[in-house]
C-alpha cells in the first residue's frame, strides 16, 4: 500500500484535474480562485487581514508548490484523510476542498453515527472501521458522495454550477471506487425532473417574491384572491422587494465575512 505522501500526491492530482487554473467567475462566492485556492483562503494562509487586502494578482500568480502545501495542511491533514482507507481518503478530501473541511467531516460523522463535531478523532475512526466492516468501503464512499451531492443541490448557485458539480462528484465516486479496489461507479441517466426541481430550489426565494408581486398586481387589476385577504397590493409588492434585497444583503455579508 502506498505511504501517506504518495496517497496525498495521487489524490491531489485528481482534485487539481477538477479545479483547473485561474478563474474569477462573478457568480462564484469564492471569488478569484487558482488551482482551487480561493482569494480568502490564500490570504489566510499568508496571514493577510482583512483578506481583501491581498491583491488578486497574488491569486493569479500562485505556484503549484504553495498550493500543494495549502491543500496538505488545510484540507488533507485537517480532515485526517491520511488515516482513512484508500478511496475514502479521496472522497472526503475532495468534499473538504469543495465545501469546506468542517462540513465534509460532519457529513462523514453523521453517516457513521457519531457526534458531528467536525473533528476526526479515535471515536470517528473506530466508527468508520465498524461501518466499513458492515457495508464495505465502497458502500461508505457511495453514501458520502450521495450526501455531498444532496447538499450541493440545495445551494442557490446550483442553477449556475450544478452540472459541473454533479459531474465532479460522479468522477470522484468512480476514482474513489478504483482506489478502494471496488467496482467502478455505474453511469445512470440523469433524471430530468430531478434536475429541474434542484434548479428551482436554488431560486426559491425569488420564486416566492415573484408570486407575491403577481398577487399584488392581480389585486390592482381587481382579481379577488381570498387567501390573501387583509394584505393590500402595495404591501405584497413591498414585502416581495424586501425579501429579495434581504437575501442579497445576507449573501453579500457572508461573502465579506
Key features of this structure:
257 residues, 2% strand
Largest sheet data: 2 strands, antiparallel
Determine the fraction of residues in helical runs and give it as a percent range: 55-70%
Low-confidence stretches: 187-192, 250-257
**Could you state the order of secondary-structure elements as H and E?**
HEEHHHHHHHHHHH
Strand content range:
under 5%
Q: Report the count of strand segments.
A: 2
- Strand order, biggest sheet? 1-2
Distance between the termini: 42 Å
Task: Tell me about this structure.
By secondary structure, the protein is an all-alpha fold. Helices cover 66% and strands 2% of the residues. The chain has a two-stranded antiparallel sheet. Strand 1 and strand 2 form a beta hairpin. Helix 1 crosses helix 5 and helix 6 crosses helix 8. It is globular. It starts with a helix and ends with a helix. The C terminus is likely disordered.
Give the structure's gist in a few sentences.
By secondary structure, the chain is mainly α.
